[in-house]
UniProtKB/TrEMBL annotation, chain A:
Keywords: ATP-binding, Nucleotide-binding, Transport. This is ABC transporter ATP-binding protein. The keyword ATP-binding applies. Residues 13-250 form the ABC transporter domain.
Length: 255, 851
């Protein structure tokens, strides 16, 4: 099944018949089996699926963190597949933002320095208005001079979100960004992500296995055994849960 | 527990290799020193055994003045030729041969320069025929007065051939004399020399005159035992016949004695090498301590888990110590092996340099093995003890937490550091002010050690401001800023890494301060005091100083424009039974007019043949005053009584005792060693210098230089010493570099995720490397800075203590210090290479993927 939503020109990231095979021989694992997907600009997409279904692998391939075995991946106008280290670094600087499940921040830097780090590395100045907006939305104005160790998990994750947003990347990839948070902090982070899509047109692709988190997205893509098996537009926690349940019964999968 | 330890050891073998390497290098130094001195010692044994193998019994005069290896070659007064016949009469003696054998026969090579020796003597001997050992390879024996034969190695070095005229300087004639080379000889076993000794054989009368200074005397008599008579019996019979004035020994004894005196020098040399090994090991201790600390910190979770499942604190200590023992053992074995290699290599080089010393087989003395294991194990275990203790205090709960080890306050370590530094300062003060009650050297060394450890303990505190200041230099780039933050991140780790570098740099700086100050002070004094525009002197290569023809002194005096000429002689003599350096000046007026001596009692402008002058210090310590009589025994001749006729103020430029120049013929070296020429006012130096140069045409060992060049040449021996010390301390610095590499490598490992994150958000590979490099450079420059400061302090303290010895000016080698800091920056860059490459290669995905 191929998930095609919207027109090609609007895709911020695209996977075209992507295969990912780990190892060889006996130990061979096929993590992705010909996944094709497009992620529209200005939308919040969640990738869901049971553990081991290939969610993280897909995200890593899309973001150029991992190479694909077959197929191509592109971000905006750039074909990621085949880029060297320099090209990938440039891609990460200019077009991609990341939010990881944990360990998002450098312990030696303050929150503010962490937020500005990608720009400093690229040797760019932040757009002051946009910076103010981001700080405003993150709601960390009085915590900017604190180091990560002095912030709660939710605050740290919000700093990570701000860092991803501040350079206005083509697309932000988030891998279980609320996985380590309690539900209240998780909700704060998800709200923040949804707002940045709604109000500022940011594109976000988020991997999650939590139906409640997926419900914040505009669209959910379901993976099972390395293949896209289903899709929901304007999901709610209930519809997501339903689909998940269906996927757990193998007989109903794949048709 | 044991299995768990071994497993974790194997899992982290790469991390331990570098710290193990530090122990390997230190142990290598220790075992290398032992192997080198043992091998050389046995080589000397066999050389001497060989050299004296043809002698059954040897008769020589008792040395009149005993000198040890440090003071120079032992020279013995000659024996009357008539003694040979008396020895021949002894029943059991098959034959007795009078032998001339004295140091100071210097052959002038085809390039006009004297063939130099870097250790072995240059013997002048009388030809007594071939033997089992000694065989002519070419030509024939010397028969006429102007004929010589020389050994093959010397002929090769001098590039001379049989039939050619060869110039030779001899013990009693430093003016070139031409001989015809009629033969070249070698030794059995196709050897061109024995132990690199250069030998010139003359006819007996010539050898007596030129090497011993008088006719009808010999250096020794060798006796051959008749069949059936043992060497020992013959020795006792000869001794009984001749009486107590002579030393009668068997050939074996002579060989053993000769070898023993050289070995005394070797054991001194060994101690010096071991001293440098100790420095290297001190630095190695820092490195091991640091590695184990980092490893324990990184294993916090693992160790806490062990505690959680029931391991006791003692078991944790045991596991860390066990790890240390394993590392220490492996490192000791490798260090011992490497030391054997290095020792053998150095022995080989030494043999080559000494002119072809045939090496006895490389041996590994027990001391090398015991020393290696003791040092390797003890150092490693002691260094691991502190981290082990810390490991045992990790609470089991740490297994559940994901917190980095919290930053512990630096209060305790700072207090301890202040105390230890204080103890070091007190010890240094006691040692340097001469209040250590006979333990001066060990007190000073203890003080230095305590000072180093104390400063190392204080380093974490110092590192905060200094590192952030140093780092500020690199903060113009983002990677630089990150590197700077990283270096300030773990003050203890940064501090101990830097402290390891500090030790080496501090010692080099301290030594440089002391030697530069000594050099500066001596030069300044000489510049102010020596009133001679021209100086005749040569560069001393071996044990014997260059000499020149005393006739040159008179000829120079006759040159127009020359006001005063003085030739200086010196010898180790015995005055009233006590070894004393005695000197003689060819013109006593030079004492005042050239060397600025001031009389404190009596008359120092004249010196009769039985009169003597003394310096005020010597006179005070020996209780002499004008009119005192003393008994003086020189290397040669009979003891004589001298009356003190004058006392001069002691200074750096005056000798303890000055004898009349007539006494110089009994000196071990009866030729002038230096000449000082004072010109008439208004005479141009450049007018006189070439004329003196012409006079020295036949004294090729020396040349004439203006005063400044002479002073520079005199102090240049200190430069050589400095270079040698720097080379030996380089090992300590190399170990410190290993320490930097190790710390960085471990830090990179620890920060894998962080580095992955940085790469994920756009840090380029080159920028990652830049970041690591900045961290390394900051650490190493910080260490060098500490070293320069501490070293300057130590050096200044020593210079202050040596004020009375004439080191009056404290000279700080700013240029050198700058070089050290620059070098440290380079060291940092070099040390960063491997960790930086490693950091740049980090797999972004692997680093950020969560477990
Ligand atoms: N580096 C790897 N080597 C081998 N197999 C891997 C690797 N990474 C992931 N896999 C396998 O690929 C499959 C998909 O993994 P992943 O994308 O992490 O799943 P998810 O994120 O959906 O839990 C799993 O079967 C996993 O075991
Ligand atoms: Mg995953």
């Amino acid at each position: 099944m191929t998930a095609t939503v919207g027109q090609q020109a609007q895709a911020a990231a695209r996977a075209n018949d992507v295969w990912k095979v780990y190892g060889s021989g006996e130990a061979q694992v096929i993590a992705l089996r010909g996944v094709s997907a497009e992620f529209e600009r200005g939308r919040f997409t969640a990738i869901m699926g049971p553990s081991g279904s290939g969610k993280s692998t897909l995200m890593h391939c899309l973001a150029g963190l991992d190479s694909v075995t077959r197929g191509t991946v592109s971000i905006g106008e750039t074909t990621v597949t085949g880029l060297g280290d320099a090209g990938l670094t440039k891609l990460r600087r200019d077009k991609v933002g990341f939010i990881f499940q944990q360990f998002n921040l450098l312990p030696t830097l303050t929150a503010k320095e962490n937020i500005l780090l990608p720009l400093s590395i690229a040797g760019r100045k932040p757009d002051p208005a946009w910076y103010d907006t981001v700080i405003e939305t993150v709601g960390l104005k009085d915590r900017l001079d604190h180091r990560p160790a002095q912030l709660s998990g939710g605050q740290q994750q919000r700093v990570a979100c701000a860092r991803a947003l501040v350079s206005r990347p083509e697309v932000i990839f988030a891998d279980e960004p609320t996985g380590n948070l309690d539900s209240r902090s998780g909700a704060e982070v998800l709200n923040f992500l949804r707002n940045s899509v709604r109000e500022h047109g940011q594109t976000i692709v988020m991997v999650t296995h939590d139906p409640t988190a997926a419900a914040y997205a505009d669209r959910v893509v379901f993976l099972a055994d390395g293949e896209i098996v289903s899709e929901l537009i304007e999901p709610t926690a209930e519809t997501v849960l339903d689909t998940m349940k269906k996927l757990d019964t193998p007989a109903e999968v794949g048709n | 527990m044991f299995r768990a330890t071994l497993k974790s050891l194997l899992a982290r073998k790469v991390r331990l290799i570098l710290s193990g390497l530090a122990v390997v290098l230190g142990v290598m130094f220790v075992s290398g020193a032992f192997v080198l001195t043992d091998t050389l010692g046995r080589s000397f044994d066999s050389v001497f055994a060989d050299g004296f193998s043809e002698i059954d019994v040897n008769v020589a005069a008792k040395p009149k003045v005993q000198v040890n290896e440090m003071e120079g070659e032992q020279t013995v007064a000659p024996l009357p030729a008539a003694l040979v016949d008396r020895v021949k009469q002894v029943p059991g003696a098959a034959s007795a041969t009078g032998v001339v054998n004295a140091d100071g026969a210097r052959v002038i090579g085809s390039n006009g320069k004297v063939v130099t020796s870097f250790g072995p003597p240059q013997l002048g001997e009388n030809w007594t025929g071939e033997s089992e050992l000694l065989k002519l390879r070419e030509g024939r024996a010397p028969q006429a007065e102007d004929e010589i034969v020389i050994n093959k190695a010397l002929a090769t070095a001098a590039k001379v051939q049989v039939g050619q005229k060869v110039g030779v300087l001899t013990a009693f004639e430093s003016k070139k004399r031409d001989f015809t080379l009629v033969g070249v000889f070698g030794y059995s076993g196709d050897r061109d020399s024995i132990g690199g000794v250069n030998e010139v054989f003359f006819t007996t009368p010539v050898a007596q005159r030129l090497m011993l200074g008088e006719p009808d005397v010999f250096s020794s008599i060798t006796v051959q035992a008749a069949g059936g008579v043992s060497d020992e019996k013959l020795r006792d019979d000869v001794a009984r016949t001749l009486g107590a004035d002579f030393e009668v020994k068997t050939g074996e004894q002579v060989a053993a004695d000769a070898s023993a005196s050289l070995k005394e020098g070797l054991s001194f040399f060994n101690k010096i090498l071991l001293g440098f090994a100790a420095v290297a090991l001190l630095v190695g201790t820092f490195l091991i301590l640091n590695t184990f600390s980092i490893i324990v910190a990184q294993r916090t979770r693992e160790l806490a888990l062990m505690r959680a499942i029931g391991a006791s604190g003692r078991q944790i200590i045991g596991s860390v110590v066990l790890e240390a023992i394993a590392v220490g053992l492996i490192a000791s074995v490798l260090g011992l092996a490497a030391g054997i290699g290095v020792g053998a290599l150095l022995a080989f080089l030494f043999g080559k340099l000494a002119g072809g010393l045939t090496l006895a087989g490389i041996g590994v003395p027990a001391a090398a093995v015991i020393g290696s294991f003791a040092v390797g194990l003890v150092i490693t275990v002691v260094a691991a003890l502190l981290p082990a203790l810390r490991a045992s205090r990790i609470p089991p709960i740490a297994a559940m937490q994901d917190v980095a080890t919290p930053d512990r306050p630096l209060t305790k370590i700072t207090v301890a550091g202040s105390l230890v530094t204080g103890v070091g300062a007190v010890l240094l003060f006691l040692g340097l002010s001469g209040n250590a009650g006979g333990q001066t050297l060990s007190t000073i060394l203890g003080g230095v050690l305590f000072a180093f450890i104390g400063v190392a303990l204080l380093t974490p505190l110092i590192s905060r401001p200094v590192v952030s200041l140093l780092g500020a230099i690199f903060s113009w780039s983002v990677p630089g800023q990150l590197g700077r933050l990283n270096s300030g991140r773990n003050p203890r780790r940064t501090a101990i890494t830097a402290a390891a570098l500090m030790v080496g740099i501090a010692l080099v700086t301290g030594v440089t301060v002391i030697l530069d100050s000594a050099k500066g002070s001596i030069s300044a004094l000489a510049q102010d005091t020596i009133k001679a525009e021209l100086v005749i002197a040569g560069q001393q290569g071996g044990p014997r100083p260059p000499t020149f023809d005393p006739g040159v002194l008179d000829q120079a005096k006759a040159l127009p424009g020359v006001r005063l000429v003085d030739g200086e002689y010196g010898d180790m003599g015995r005055i009233d039974g006590e070894g004393t350096w005695v000197a003689a000046s060819s013109d006593i007026a030079s004492l005042r007019q050239i060397f600025g001596a001031k009389p404190t009692a009596g008359d120092i402008d004249r010196l009769g043949p039985t009169q003597m002058l003394a310096s005020s210090d010597t006179a005070t310590s020996r209780g002499w005053s004008v009119g005192s009589t003393v008994n003086v025994q020189l290397t040669r001749g009979e003891a004589r009584t001298y009356t003190i006729s004058g006392i001069y103020e002691s200074s750096q430029l005056t000798n303890p005792v000055t004898l009349p120049v007539t006494a110089a013929k009994d000196f071990a070296i009866p030729q002038p060693i230096q000449g000082f020429i004072q010109l008439d006012p208004g005479t141009r130096v450049s007018d006189v210098q070439p004329q003196v140069e012409a006079l020295l045409a036949d004294s090729p060992e020396v040349s004439v230089a203006d005063r400044d060049a002479f002073i520079k040449q005199q102090t240049s021996s200190l430069d050589g010493l400095l270079t040698m010390i720097q080379i030996l301390l380089a090992l300590a610095i190399v170990i410190a570099v290993l320490g930097i590499i190790n710390t960085l490598a471990l830090s990179v490992l620890e920060r894998t995720r962080e580095l992955g994150l940085l790469r994920a958000i756009g840090l380029r590979r080159s920028q990652t490397m830049g970041m690591i490099t900045v961290e390394a450079v900051v650490i190493s420059v910080f260490g060098a800075l500490l070293g320069v400061v501490v070293g300057t302090g130590l050096g200044a303290a020593v210079v202050e203590a040596l004020k009375d010895e004439g080191i009056t000016d404290l000279i700080l080698p700013w240029g050198q210090m700058g070089v050290f800091l620059g070098l440290a920056a380079i060291i940092g860059v070099v040390a960063a290479v491997l960790p930086a490459v490693r950091a740049a290669r980090i797999n972004v995905l692997g680093a950020i993927a969560h477990d």
